[in-house]
Design brief:
Enzyme class: transferase
Structural class: alpha/beta
Subcellular location: Cytoplasm
Largest sheet: 8 strands, parallel, barrel
Number of helices: 8
Strand content: 15-25%
CATH superfamily: Aldolase class I
Distance between the termini: 24 Å
Strand order of the largest sheet: 1-2-3-4-5-6-9-12
CATH architecture: Alpha-Beta Barrel
Main location: cytoplasm
Radius of gyration: 17 Å
Number of domains: 1
Number of strands: 13
Shape: globular
Keywords: Cytoplasm, Transferase
Order of helices and strands: EHEHEHEHEHEEEHEEEHEEH
GO molecular function, one term: 3-deoxy-8-phosphooctulonate synthase activity
Length: 272
C-alpha cells in the first residue's frame, strides 16, 4: 500500500519507519492530548511518519470489572480532536461489525484485534469503509496464514492494508516474536511490529495481564534490523495508573530516547 495515501501522514519520503503510538485506551481528553502532544513533537523532530493510537473501547478484557471505556462516541470525538489539533492521522481498534462504519467517521485507520483477525465479517466491514485496515496477526496464527486475512481486505476492493505482529503464544503465559515471519508477511503487506503487546504475559491468576517492558528496546531494535516497516508502541505518562495494559507500556518520558536510537539504526539498515 501507499503510506502517503493516509491523510495527514508526514515525512513519508524520509525512508524512516512509521510509528503507531499512544495510550492503550482513551481514558479522557486531557490524557490523550498530553500524550499526543509529546509524541507528535518527538516524531516531528526525528521526521517519523506518525499515527496516533488509542482504543475507543476495550472489549477484550480478562475480567468483567475491567475498564472498557468512557463511552464510544465520547472517545471517538477525542480521537478526532487529536487529529484536527495536531494534524496527525489516528487509528483505533474495532470489535463488532457495526463499529466499522461508526469509527470510520472519526479515524483514518481501523485496526482488527489479534483475537478477531479471522472474523471474516468484521474484516470485510472494515475494508468496506475504504479506510486503511491494520490487521493484527493472531497469536495463534502462522505468518504465512496472514495472506488470507490480507486477501479478505483486498478482495473487498480495498488495497490499503497493514499487518502488525504482536507475538505468538508460547505456553499459557508468554509470547515470543518469531522474526522469520517478517520477510514472509512483507510479501503480503507492510509489516508493523508491536513492541509492547509482544511482551505481555497473559493469563495471570489475578486476571490482570503482566508484561516485560524492560525488553521493549530489545524487541524494537531487532524489528528494525529485520526490516519491519513500522513500529507500534503503547505509551503513557504514568503506566502504573493506566486503566488498561499498564504492565507492558513504555513510560512516555522514555520514548524519545528509544525512537532516537531506532531512527539511527534504521539509517544504518537503509545504508547496508
Amino acid at each position: 500500500m501507499d503510506l502517503s495515501a493516509i491523510p495527514q501522514l508526514k515525512y513519508t519520503a524520509e525512508k524512516n519507519f512509521f510509528l503507531l503510538a499512544g495510550p492503550c485506551a482513551i481514558e479522557g481528553e486531557a490524557m490523550a492530548m498530553q500524550i499526543a502532544e509529546t509524541v507528535t513533537g518527538i516524531a516531528d523532530r526525528l521526521k517519523i511518519p506518525y499515527i496516533f493510537k488509542g482504543s475507543f473501547k476495550k472489549a477484550n478484557r480478562s475480567r468483567v470489572d475491567s475498564f472498557t471505556g468512557i463511552g464510544d462516541e465520547k472517545a471517538l470525538r477525542i480521537l478526532k480532536k487529536v487529529s484536527e489539533h495536531f494534524g496527525v492521522p489516528t487509528v483505533t481498534d474495532i470489535h463488532e461489525i457495526d463499529d466499522a462504519a461508526m469509527a470510520a467517521e472519526y479515524v483514518d485507520v481501523l485496526q482488527i484485534p489479534a483475537f478477531l483477525v479471522r472474523q471474516t465479517d468484521l474484516v470485510v466491514a472494515a475494508a468496506n469503509t475504504g479506510k486503511v485496515v491494520n490487521l493484527k496477526k493472531g497469536q495463534f496464527m502462522s505468518p504465512e496464514s496472514m495472506k488470507h486475512a490480507v486477501a479478505k481486505v483486498t478482495d473487498s476492493g480495498n488495497s490499503q492494508v497493514l499487518i502488525t505482529d504482536r507475538g505468538t503464544m508460547f505456553g499459557y503465559q508468554d509470547l515470543i516474536v518469531d522474526f522469520r515471519g517478517v520477510p514472509v508477511m512483507k510479501q503480503f503487506a507492510p509489516v508493523v511490529l508491536d513492541v509492547t503487546h509482544s511482551l505481555q504475559q497473559p493469563n495471570q491468576a489475578s486476571g490482570v495481564t503482566g508484561g516485560r517492558p524492560e525488553l521493549i528496546e530489545t524487541i524494537a531494535r531487532a524489528g528494525i534490523a529485520t526490516g519491519v516497516d513500522g513500529i507500534f508502541i503503547e505509551t503513557h505518562f504514568d503506566p502504573a495508573s493506566a486503566k488498561s495494559d499498564g504492565a507492558n507500556m513504555l513510560p512516555l518520558d522514555q520514548l524519545e530516547r528509544l525512537l532516537t536510537r531506532l531512527t539511527a539504526l534504521r539509517q544504518t539498515v537503509n545504508d547496508f
